């Protein structure tokens, strides 16, 4: 990684201190700024967001590239890159075709409520708000006859689902010790529901259990609709990039 970063115009040494000048380029814009010596990928992303946040389309995927003086062109940011000298970076959108989601119909939909537990209350950002939205989702599921599957992450240590969430009529309430909700019992429950096509997913944390569950369900051919205002994380940056 050191050799790759060195040839790319930025070193990988974390030694030293102070700030390093960096030119941040996005679209047709270029703005000089600085980052702490030894800053890595996350700090560069934070700086891009602070400089261009109102212009970045959060529905697209991006990659950070570094201008390599040796090659006189941009290259993908080397793995493990840390800023140690003056450099130029840019944020480039990836041309990825987004999957189109179909309409939701009660007869082919299941709701997944993920780990809305008491011990997460003080740690998760806006936990009270996502509880409120979760309550309305489950109320709607009962009115429409939509099956609800609920998991609880290690309930012996993290407690049960918060009291505000009414689990009356839930098809399955299951403890788990892995991140994904897609357990054998959950797969068996889905197999019992004819014509399931879509999953509405909400809970915590967005970048861990929600993301892993969504990826596994998509891998099984299901459409996954994540309710953005009913899912959160300890860090808003983790939440943002997980949803992205």
From TrEMBL:
Pfam family, one: Isochorismatase
InterPro entries: Isochorismatase-like_dom (IPR000868), Isochorismatase-like_sf (IPR036380), Isochorismatase_domain (IPR050993)
Domain Isochorismatase-like: 109-244
Family under the similarity heading: Belongs to the isochorismatase family.
Family matches, as PANTHER family: HYDROLASE, ISOCHORISMATASE DOMAIN-CONTAINING PROTEIN 1
Protein name: Isochorismatase domain-containing protein 1
Taxonomic source organism: Balaeniceps rex
């Amino acid at each position: 990684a050191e050799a790759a970063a060195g040839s790319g115009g930025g070193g990988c040494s974390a030694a030293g201190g102070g700030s390093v000048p960096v030119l941040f380029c996005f679209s047709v814009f270029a703005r000089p700024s600085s980052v702490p010596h030894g800053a890595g990928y996350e700090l560069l992303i934070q700086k891009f967001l602070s400089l261009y946040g109102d212009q970045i389309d959060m529905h697209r995927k991006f990659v950070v590239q570094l201008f390599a003086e040796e090659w006189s062109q941009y290259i993908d940011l080397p793995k493990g890159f840390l800023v140690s000298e003056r450099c130029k970076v840019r944020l480039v959108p990836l041309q990825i075709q987004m999957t189109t989601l179909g309409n939701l119909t009660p007869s082919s939909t299941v709701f997944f409520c993920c780990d809305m537990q008491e011990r997460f209350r003080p740690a998760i950002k806006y936990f009270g708000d996502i509880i409120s939205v979760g309550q309305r989702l489950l109320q709607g599921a009962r009115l429409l006859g939509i099956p609800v599957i609920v998991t609880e992450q290690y309930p012996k240590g993290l407690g049960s689902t918060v009291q505000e969430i009414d689990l009356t009529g839930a098809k399955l309430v299951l403890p788990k010790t892995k991140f994904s909700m897609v357990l054998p019992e959950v797969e068996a429950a889905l197999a019992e529901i004819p014509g399931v096509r879509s999953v509405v997913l909400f809970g915590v944390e967005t970048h861990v259990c929600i993301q892993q569950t969504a990826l596994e369900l998509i891998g099984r051919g299901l459409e996954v609709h994540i309710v953005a205002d009913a899912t959160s994380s300890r860090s808003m940056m983790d939440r943002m990039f997980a949803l992205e």
